[in-house]
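Record type: monomer structure entry
Structure origin: computed from sequence
Chain ID: A
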Amino acid sequence: MKNEVKYFGFDVRKTSSIWKYIILLDVFEMTIASNLKEAIVEALTSLGGSGSISEVRSYINSKYPNKWKDIGTTMADLCPQSTSSTYPQKDRVLERIGRGKYRLRKKSSLVSRTGSIKEIRDSAVSISLETFSFKKAEEILQKKGQLSIILRAASLNNLSSKKDHNQLQYFFHKNRWDIEVSLFPVITYKLDGFKEKTGIEVERSLIDAIHRSLFRCQWAYAKGKLDVLVFIVPTYKEPKFEQVKRDINEFKEIIPYPVYLVGVSPTQF
């Protein structure tokens, strides 16, 4: 068919925007790194832009077994401050953010053999988080082993655009969460992410959408399909973290299930 774009049998043009986003990034990740620097950038991209040496090593050894060694040394050499590195300054794309932990430090373009381009966000903006736990939601998420991945997802960007929303969903997808899941009688009502009865909602524009999700999830909770709901929202614009927190507290008598709220703030440095 003319202009048809296929991905594992699906016509990409007929999919929703988030699935188009996921398909394009999956195509990007099918490319093969030709050197260790490219493999490190690929690994950090897959990890959401930052990660530890052990996480990067695990990714590289899984995809490229027995191909490269000295991964930690090379990551250090890819930082501008290294005095022993043989990489030119323009190729030093990492910065150290903690002991054994690095992130991509500037906007870079990775071009696949098929011409697909993935851009890495400029690290001039970091993210700070605020959290609020209702009915021991944080404790439940810790017991499930889900809390760290949720906080890591929330740290990816400042939720200023639809692309940021898609990036969070893609991160959950790559970490084996289901996305665009309906637990409700009306199948067009969907959660942004779902795993083991934990629902994720990423909302960056309307507090009314928060209220609708709280209402719908009462049905899912009553049916035993959900046991904790997570909201990831901005702190600096609607639906503001403090407003959502206020509403949860004001209507606590009619919210039967645990809710975990994460507020995202951009921090210039």
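Annotation 1: The two ends are 51 Å apart (CA to CA).
Annotation 2: Residues 111 and 188 are 36 Å apart (CA to CA).
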